[in-house]
Amino acid sequence: MSHRIELSTVEKTFGAGASAVHAFGPVSMTVEAGEFVSLLGPSGCGKSTLMLMTAGLLEPSKGSITIADIPVTGPQTDIGIMFQDNTLVPWRSVRGNIELQLEMRGIVPATETEKIDALLRAVQMEDFADRFPYELSGGMQQRAAFCQAMIHSPQTMLLDEPLGKLDAMTRESIRSDLQRLWMQERPTVMFVTHSIEEAVQLSSRVAVITPRPGQIERVLEINLPYPRDFDVKNTPEFSAYVRETQEIFRGYGVI
Ligand SMILES: Nc1ncnc2c1ncn2[C@@H]1O[C@H](COP(=O)(O)OP(=O)(O)OP(=O)(O)O)[C@@H](O)[C@H]1O
Ligand SMILES: [Mg+2]
To answer: Model-level pTM?
Structure first.
């Protein structure tokens, strides 16, 4: 069962006194169980800071966060996380890195071989299962990290620009894998992206964040039926959502 995430007047300030940086907030928002919500905002507005706070890796300066009505007070272990910089360990192969996620949760990797292989195939990495991170391109490392984040079918997923380093074509294909996975298993997803099109294609709602300190400018409901494949981008409805979002960014002076 997926979980609801609730942010209540969450704020983060780094440092103190004259050198203090008010990075984020205050923001209040609820991501309902099973929803796919994108956070779209200019660089430096505090998106990664919010993801770290939600994962329990950074403490808010003010306000609180709950997942499934339980306050986040420390690192969350049963959620799937993918951050901007991938988290592969250099001393394990691609397969070994994916297995590490299972081992940490007390699952015997040998019982999940089929699932690992299926994920690797989905991201065209089956021929690189035994390679080490240093033998992979940036995009391949990111695809491996994607498998790592998905292998334990997490019910809550925090994805911070997970497709950022990928070439356009791989990005398109992983985007549809992600959408299929979300439709099948319905985890709650918080997804950070710089791409307006990506946010509109994937999300049930898009939260547009202001420049730092990031606050929610507008939340757009994307009322397009799923699955949203490549062709949806050619529809006038899709273009209208993209334009509406672009207008907000134009207002900030960032595009
Ligand atoms: N550990 C830290 N110490 C001090 N300041 C920090 C720290 N982490 C982030 N900041 C500051 O907080 C602000 C928000 O940073 P954050 O990484 O959350 O932005 P972002 O929205 O994820 O940007 P991007 O889109 O470029 O990834 C920035 O001004 C950054 O310099
Ligand atoms: Mg960031």
So the answer is: 0.91
